[in-house]
Amino acid sequence: MRSPTRTRSSSRASIRRVEGPGARYRLRLSARRHLRRFRLSEPVVKIAPSIGLVDAARWDALAQAADDARERDYPFTRHAFLSALEDSGCVGEGTGWRPLHLLVEESERLVAAAPCYLKSNSQGEYVFDHAWADACLRAGIPYYPKLQLSIPFTPATGPRLLASAGPTGDPGRAALIGGLRALREQIGASSIHATFLREEERDAFAGAGFLMRIDQQFHWLDDSYGDYEGFLASLASRKRKAIRRERREALAAGITVEWITGSDLREEHWDAFHAFYQDTGSRKWGRPYLNRRFFSLIGERMPERVLLVMARREGRYVAGALNFIGA
Fold first, then answer.
1. What is the pTM of this model?
2. Domains present along the chain, CATH in parentheses
3. 111 touches 77 (CB < 8 A)
4. Comparing C-alpha atoms, which of 146, 159, 155 is closest to residue 197?
5. Beta pairing class for 24-30 and 2-3
6. Which end of the chain is more exposed for a tag (fewer CB within 10 A), N or C?
7. Going along the chain, which residue ranges are E strands?
């Protein structure tokens, strides 16, 4: 979803810096047309330039508020994941991802939040908007900076407007959208982009007048196979035989596979995996976005959500795959 340059906020807003330790920007909204029907007690939208300024328990309580178990266990909006990106320097100054997270408070209580970034490029979004950028360039309209509601480097559909599940969270979600518009106007961003949204959030943005962009991804889903043999049984005979042959050949080469998670994750595993990541990224994509420190931090802060699958041959790791565990 994106809000084009011509979209203007119907809010009256002012933004000021709150002084003191952990200073934040406070954005006060009033007379919001799209909030009036909820009879809210004047919510305050705050902008946190670092996830570290937000209490982890309060943030995660919103991230896990969904009715659907898969969305409750979505790992990428967890405070631990977002803070690992910031504390490792993968996002922040000089990366093109400047954190400007939105917080909606009522009576000092956090009722909604959203991971948001001021972007000075389109890297790491996995949504290719170069045509928009080129069109703006030809028209003499600055395309950057833009506001991006997303998880950096993570093209995985999941919650973006964090609030209570169902209709009780509608006022918070509406306040976040109003806050995004007011923030865009205050800082002079060209547009607002919200990517890899859940259907409920997509409808909320569409109802607020945002343009919709439809793309496609390919996902593998566990269709109650039970086990690996159950999965193979669902395939055509030709494909089943090919997969079994490939697996036999890999094991015949002396390769063993390890599944590593939780307290078993060690720095030697991350050393090996980071080397694979750098090599693959340099050959396939041109620029790996995640640095070595990031992998150590997720191993420290969310080890129970990480599954590292490593292939070993002759006592040496030769390949690896990083998985995040949800529902």
1. 0.86
2. 2-207 (no CATH), 221-252 (no CATH), 254-324 (3.40.630.30)
3. no
4. 159
5. unpaired
6. C
7. 2-3, 12-18, 24-30, 44-48, 97-99, 101-106, 109-114, 116-119, 146-149, 162-163, 192-194, 255-261, 306-313, 316-324
